[in-house]
Amino acid sequence: KQVPESEFVCKGAFTTAPSVVLSEPTKGKSGKATITLTPCTPLPADGKIAVKLPWNLDKLAGGRVSMGGVTGMDGGVAVKVDADGDELIFTRDGTGSTVKSNERIVLVIDNFKSPDAAGATGAFGVSTLGPSGKPVDTDLNVPGSDIVYDGAFAKQPAVKLSDDKTAAKPTATLTFAAGTPIPKDGQIKLKMP
After folding, report:
1. Separation CA 49–CA 107 (nearest Å)
2. Residue 94: which H helix or E strand, with range?
3. Among candidates 3, 20, 11, which has minimal Cα distance to 100?
4. What does the radius of gyration of the chain's CA atoms come to, in whole angstroms?
5. Predicted confidence (pLDDT) per residue in 113-151, tens digit
6. How far apart are CA 106 and CA 90, in angstroms?
7. DSSP 8-state class, residue 185
């Protein structure tokens, strides 16, 4: 059941928690990013949406970011990366209508580069902004992503023998750091010369 707009009490929060999903959560790779948000406070036709990144896009990667699609919001919208490289700003051009309270917006960005380091990214921050740039609805704890390696080891494998003499029957110790998670029913294969 949808709650009528008149019954919402907006306290600077979204009616549903925003999300940021990366299509390519692999270290240094580019893909799509999908941002979903449901503002409580109506978003005017000349309003903005800001997404704070838990990493910086370099100048080259930031310059390649482009709009891949928008649903839940009419009129024109453009995306740019701020001067620090750690925030995406979506600016509505004033030609559309106001997005009503509790209306879901989905923004898709193309050419979005994942961080150059593997591991947890940390939280994203999502805000709607008035035309002046003042935050209206804000969530600074949007779950981040786990960035993985591209099929490589995070730390190269090394084999150490307990005894390296001819005809010895040593114990072999294998050490490495996986670049991607190993499932609990996964296997590790070691080919000895």
Report:
1. 10
2. none
3. 3
4. 23
5. 898 888 889 999 999 999 888 999 999 999 999 888 777
6. 12
7. T
Give residue 119's region: left, alpha or beta (phi > 0; psi -120 to 50). left
Beta bridge partners of 125: 52
- Show Cβ contacts of residue 91 under 8 Å, excluding neighbours closer than 6 positions: 48, 77, 78, 79, 80
CA nearest 16: which of 121, 112, 142, 124?
142
Supply the pLDDT for residue 138: 96
Which residue's structure tokens are 């879901």? 104
d(CA 40, CA 17): 11
What the block records as the tokens of 129 is 């902004």
Q: Would you state the pLDDT for residue 57?
A: 78
Pair of tokens at residue 106: 């989905």
